[in-house]
Amino acid sequence: MKNAPVWKRVLAFIVDLVGSFYVLGMLIGYLTGNAVKGGFQLEGGPALLLFALIIAYFVVMNKYCGGTLGKRLFGIAKKKK
User: Fold this and answer.
1) Mind listing the pLDDT tens digit for each residue in 8-36?
2) Are 26 and 39 in contact (CB under 8 A)?
3) pTM for the model
């Protein structure tokens, strides 16, 4: 299988990072009462939880799902056998 071009990999990573940061950040913000108008403001434990969940997103999606949502969007996810 040929590797995807660098630009596709970079864009897929940016889509994944921004998407996971925003979605998970908003979820944690609402659950912890740290949601503010137009976003969230996390400090301490909730911020560490967000960091851990973003890492877990990349690990779980790549290991068990064949690729992240960004990779699937750009057509560079591994095909599951």
Assistant:
1) 999 999 999 999 999 999 999 999 999 99
2) yes
3) 0.86
Q: Are 42 and 28 in contact (CB under 8 A)?
A: yes
Residue 5 to residues 1, 2, 10, 11, Cα–Cα distance (Å): 13, 9, 9, 10
Copy the structure tokens of residue 37.
């108008």
Q: Is 39 left (phi over 0), alpha (psi -120 to 50) or beta?
A: left
CA–CA separation, 42 and 27 (whole Å) = 11
